[in-house]
Amino acid sequence: MTPLPPCPKCQSEFTYEDGMMLVCPECAHEWAPGEAAESGEKVIRDSNGNPLADGDTVTVIKDLKVKGSSLVVKRGTKVKNIRLVDGDHDIDCKIDGIGQMGLKSEFVKKA
Predict the structure, then answer these.
(1) From first to last of its 111 residues, what are the pLDDT tens digits of the chain?
(2) For residues 51 and 47, what is the distance between their CA atoms, to the nearest angstrom?
(3) What span, in angstroms and rounded, lies between the C-alpha atoms of 35 and 75?
(4) Most buried of 23, 49, 58, 88, CB within 10 angstroms?
(5) pTM (two decimals)
């Protein structure tokens, strides 16, 4: 019998199987055996569901007004070398002609 992995939430060693799921009796966390390693890290995804990473190049899928000015980021604009951050706008980037700004991942697709 192979040992079960510890709970990814509280690191308890007393996990048990319940059908296809693993269950922790201490914190009541349930997870599938394959997702234990990736559950601790938040994955930011683009509008198509592709995972994004620092340094990726993305394309804007919708015209976006820049708050506080009359500038507009046009649909199809390529943004290179993005940086992922926590918060409401989860992408920090530099756009030519506009400068430093934050974007929401739901308005971009991976290039």
Answers:
(1) 568 888 888 888 889 988 888 998 998 888 887 764 554 567 889 999 899 999 999 999 999 999 999 999 999 999 999 999 988 899 999 999 999 999 999 999 998
(2) 10
(3) 35
(4) 58
(5) 0.63
